């Protein structure tokens, strides 16, 4: 049992049941609970241990505003937009002050790992996204390092912009903050500048690989990682092939919004608090339910999401089609017919009910 006194400010305003749940299974994004630029390994001690089927509340931190090329000083970075220290999250300030990263590491802040009792290699970890809450009323979109689609044009160079969360007809939108404008300028609340609807999701979810090495956080892997699928919103499910005892689940790279890809380099990067349910599907049951599995896959909005992961885009597409076809073959549909079925845009699953 954790010391609930440390969570006093967090638990204020919550009912007793909710406060008890948070104190037992709440994982803050503290310096001790996070990695910067790398993923947890099999040898890292868990920050929390839970039973299969239990829910956790876990905080995530955005890397935007804390990177070395942004000064490694979020107080100064966000202060340029008129935000003062009291408007910044404590973990956002503490992590760059207390942690270092190698130049070859990734950029993402990772929270975890979470141990799930009874999880074994070969099993599946079913991650149900129950709730995603914004931790700040702003986020950052940026392009830099010569990456993104338009780097050979006049847009070449490092550029970032703050976005403010506003309400449009009762719905949350992100609005670009023009250069030189203060975050608190009331003109931003009137939807006077380009804005877009928010659909929060977590870009990185995974389980520890079977290695003692701390792998870079940037690529996606067969055990999860930087998948960045914008369908993984509230109500979605991600299935991760467990590599080590206890699974050792981790999260990071929170987004308030993202298109079908990150053409500029980043999405709207901003911190989230996630409520997730972690359930173990034993290997034999997973085989019966899903058949052949070569990596992570998802279920969202009535659709099974076949993920093809590879550094080469053509190979990633081929793997996605191959896995989609394998899903059909599992239900005794011939390879020829399964391949043609993939062309049906409206083909969906009506339900996915599992007894774990």
Automatic annotation (TrEMBL):
Named from the GO MF annotations, one term is: hydrolase activity, acting on carbon-nitrogen (but not peptide) bonds, in linear amides
Gene3D superfamilies the UniProt entry points to: Acetamidase/Formamidase-like domains (2.60.120.580)
Pfam families in UniProt = FmdA_AmdA (PF03069)
What's the superkingdom here? Answer: Bacteria
| UniProt protein name | Acetamidase/Formamidase family protein
What is the originating organism of this protein?
A: Bifidobacterium dentium JCVIHMP022
């Amino acid at each position: 049992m954790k010391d609930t006194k440390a969570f006093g400010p967090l638990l204020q305003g919550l009912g007793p049941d909710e406060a008890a749940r948070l104190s037992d299974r709440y994982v803050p994004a503290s310096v001790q609970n996070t990695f910067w630029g790398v993923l947890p390994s099999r040898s890292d001690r868990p920050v929390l241990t839970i039973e299969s089927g239990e829910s956790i509340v876990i905080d995530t931190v955005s890397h935007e505003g804390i990177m070395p090329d942004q000064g490694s000083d979020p107080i100064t970075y966000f202060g340029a937009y008129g935000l003062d220290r009291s408007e910044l999250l404590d973990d956002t300030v503490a992590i760059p002050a207390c942690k270092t990263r190698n130049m070859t590491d990734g950029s993402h802040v990772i929270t975890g790992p979470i141990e799930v009792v009874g999880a074994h290699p070969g099993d599946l970890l079913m991650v149900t996204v129950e709730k995603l809450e914004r931790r700040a009323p702003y986020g950052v979109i940026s392009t830099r390092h010569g990456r993104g689609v338009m780097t050979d044009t006049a847009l070449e160079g490092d550029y970032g912009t703050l976005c403010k969360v506003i309400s449009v007809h009762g719905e949350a939108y992100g609005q670009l903050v023009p250069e030189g404008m203060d975050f608190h300028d009331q003109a931003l609340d009137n939807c006077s500048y380009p804005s877009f609807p928010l659909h929060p999701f977590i870009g990185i979810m995974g389980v520890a690989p079977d290695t003692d090495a701390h792998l870079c956080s940037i690529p996606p892997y067969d055990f999860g990682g930087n998948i960045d699928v914008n369908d993984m919103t509230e109500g979605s499910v991600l299935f991760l092939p467990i590599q080590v005892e206890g699974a050792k689940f981790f999260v990071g790279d929170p987004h308030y919004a993202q298109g079908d890809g990150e053409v500029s380099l980043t999405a709207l990067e901003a911190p989230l608090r996630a409520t997730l349910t972690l359930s173990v599907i034993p290997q034999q049951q997973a085989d019966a339910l899903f058949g052949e599995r070569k990596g992570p896959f998802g279920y969202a909005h009535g659709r099974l999401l076949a993920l093809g992961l590879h550094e080469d885009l053509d190979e990633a597409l081929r793997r996605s089609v191959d896995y989609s076809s394998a899903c059909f073959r599992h239900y005794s549909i011939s390879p020829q017919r399964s391949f043609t079925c993939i062309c049906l845009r409206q083909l969906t699953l009506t339900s996915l009910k599992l007894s774990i």
